[in-house]
Amino acid sequence: MLDKLQAIEDRYSELENLISDPTVIANMAEWQKHTKAHSKLTPLITKFREYKEVLQSLQDTQELLQEKLDDDLREMAELELVDLKQREETLTQELRILLLPRDPNDDKSVIVEIRGGAGGDEAALFAGDLFRMYTRYAENRGWRTELLEANAPDLGGFKEVIFVVDGDGAYSRLKYESGVHRVQRVPTTESSGRIHTSTVTVAVLPEAEEVDVSINPNDLKIDTYCASGAGGQHVNKTESAVRITHLPSGIVVTCQDEKSQLKNRDKAMRVLRAKLLEAAEAEQKADVAEARKSQVGTGDRSERIRTYNFPQGRVTDHRIGLTLHKLDFVLNGDLDELIQALITADQGERLKQAE
Fold first, then answer.
1. How far apart are CA 5 and CA 57, in angstroms?
2. Which of 108, 250, 283, 319 fits a 20 to 30 Å CA distance from 17?
3. What band does 293 get if pLDDT is binned at 50, 70 and 90?
4. Which CATH number is correct for 110-211+288-354, 3.20.20.240, 3.90.1170.40, 3.30.70.1450, 3.30.70.1660?
């Protein structure tokens, strides 16, 4: 591990020289490329340099203990040695985690799809709660959200809502939200006070750039039609809504959120690119349909990654067995404790596989 870290530090020093070189600075594209690479390595190198300082202190303290010392000084040195060994173990683990291969999509923005599953109107209402939760979380982290498509029933919430979360590292954190979310609560329409169980499916897709996915215009069938539902005077009067069918894959995306047909087409293409990227990456691992099923399941009540229990005010993530009694905070976008626990569990699993 030390040899690998030293080689990375050498590269880091090389990048430091490059980004301060006037000839490189004159080429903005090249300078930005090196600056980005330097920035990505900074956390690892900072930790590695701290590790080397601890190793040096360990060596110095061990050498000191070989000398003839009075009792008080020896006791202090022995206590310091215990502390340094603990720090060395902690830093070794942190460095191993930082050396794990990164998901190439981690820095990307995401397209989030939320759909009501089992439970009818109550599922739609909870889909609205999750949409609010994620937009609040994005706001807390300084990320921008943009609505792409929404199907809102009269009672409220969403049968389906698709939106973009635009921010550095959005996928690295939100990717753990994919799956079936189960809610247990008394619906507002329930007169007897009986608790209902409903589900909502969430899919989180890394947003694909044009360079990530090549789309042949001849493979697209583009239809326009009048928008329906809430939307103002343009509804049912102008053909502003857009439906794009990718003929080779059969993927269909629609957008009617904007009054402009051009804007709807642009938004629909963003969703299509993300879906095609997801399909291409899934093909490398398994059958595309199976990969999709593993992400969001069927929406059945028995399939779930997380349960939101309103009567008890708790949230349980079943993948890691974590229960938090702070439901209101979570639904207001306070997701960091949950997500960080999932990241830690994922890192632990990958460390086991790397051994």
1. 19
2. 108
3. low
4. 3.30.70.1660
